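User: My instructor asked us to take a sequence, write out its structure as tokens, and then describe one feature of it. I'm not sure where to start. Here is the sequence I was given:
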Amino acid sequence: MTDYFYEPSKGHGLAFNPFKAIVAPRPIGWISTVSTSGQPNLAPYSFFNAMCDVPPLLYFSTSATRKDSLNNAEATGEFVVNFVGAAQAIAMNATSATVPHGVDEFELAGLTPLPSVVVKPPRVGGAIASMECKVTRVMRLEDSRGVPIDGWIVIGEVVGVHIDSTYLQDGIFDTAAARPVARCGYRGDYVEVNRIFEMIRPA
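Assistant: Let's start with the prediction itself. The structure tokens for your sequence are:
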């Protein structure tokens, strides 16, 4: 086996940057927020994941510019993470479009906003699951030298969970049946999870 090595600060020397393709698949956080004036916003983030289970903490991260999801979550202290299954993939992709400030992505993608219980941002009608979150921290990211970069992370505590009961089998969430969609890097690479295998951790 030969080892291709590069230092990111000096360039990768390949046709396309492999970073996002190596860190894959990445779950998609379909984040809904509202502005302080009540304008809804919906956008997908593939730099997203769980951080802790007790209490349940999630994060999403944005780079390059401060986007509406970040600004809204920081200003209101709330957001909702909506599950992206295969049936929602096309609508999710539609909400990734760069549109002028104030455009309603729910309307753009033909989605129905549903009221949340604990927080103000709506959840996505038809989503297999949605998690209502309260912001615990917003941080600007730094590089290894401690220099701030154009990237931010939003951490939230899950304070309410909605699950389509069709996907609950004997009290277990049926991930394979839900067919979550994840990002695999490069321009439009995605994967659908539809098969689960089990490996029990050694004692």
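For the description part of your assignment, you could build on this observation: The domain at 26-190 is CATH 2.30.110.10 (Pnp Oxidase; Chain A). Try explaining in your own words what that tells you about the chain.
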